[in-house]
Structure formats: C-alpha cells, structure tokens
Amino acid sequence: MDDRREPAVPAVRVSDRDRDEALGVLAAGLAEGRLGQHEHEIRSKRALQARTAADLAVVTADLPAPAPTRSEQDRKDLREWLAEWRYWLGGAVIMSGIWGARCAQKGEPTYYWPVMPLGIWAAVLIAIAIWPRDMDGSDEGDDGRAVAR
To answer: Is the whole model's pTM more than 0.70, yes or no?
Structure first.
C-alpha cells in the first residue's frame, strides 16, 4: 500500500483501489530487481485475494513505496508553494493590523512599514517559483552535495 496515505487499520476491508496500489508496489519491486518473477507472481496472487489491510500489508511490508511521478511531485510542490502564500497573507493581515492600530493611536496615517518585510517575503516566494530545478527533482549540485534553496 502507498505510505503517502494514512496507515490503514488492519481489520478494515480493502478496496480494489488498495489492491491495485499494492500491485503497483509489487510491479515496481519486480522492475527494480527487488523481487524475482516467481515471488512476484505469488505476492500478486495474495494481493488479489487480500480481504483486509493486514493481509495486504504482509504482501508489501518489505518493499518501499514507489517514488512519486513527476506530475505528483509538481502538484505537491504547488500545494506547498500556495501554502506559503497563505502564510504570507496571514503575516500581511497581522502586520497591517499592527500598523493600523499604531495609526489609530497617533490619529494619522504613518509610513506603511509592513511593505518591507512583505516585499522581501514575496520576492523570496517568487524566486522559489522561477528558480530552475534539476529534472530529477533533487537539490544536489554537480558534485553530489546538497544545495540550499
């Protein structure tokens, strides 16, 4: 089963989709050389006959979940980037509220100081969006060491 989802309760009956996901993990294991042809056939039959999540977990327990596809990774990156913009918006509301309260105390509008931190924060978020990425999605330089983004 795909460990990107919530772990299944062992006594819960599995669906056809759960079985298909397990078969995908088994197919990836076969393609990567983690399973032999005979063992793949045996496990596939067990996966198709599995009734509960515990039955299915036994079949794939020693295999890693397949790496996400490029489109799945892109969707995940977009969700994270949009979440950062929601944090930015929350920061903008809080800082503008502080600025507005200070203006109310003084009785006149003052310099809108939140423009600096919000502008810098927005520039960083835009830079993250347009910064080139390796095609394999890793953050490593040519020498194999991690590169800070």
So the answer is: no
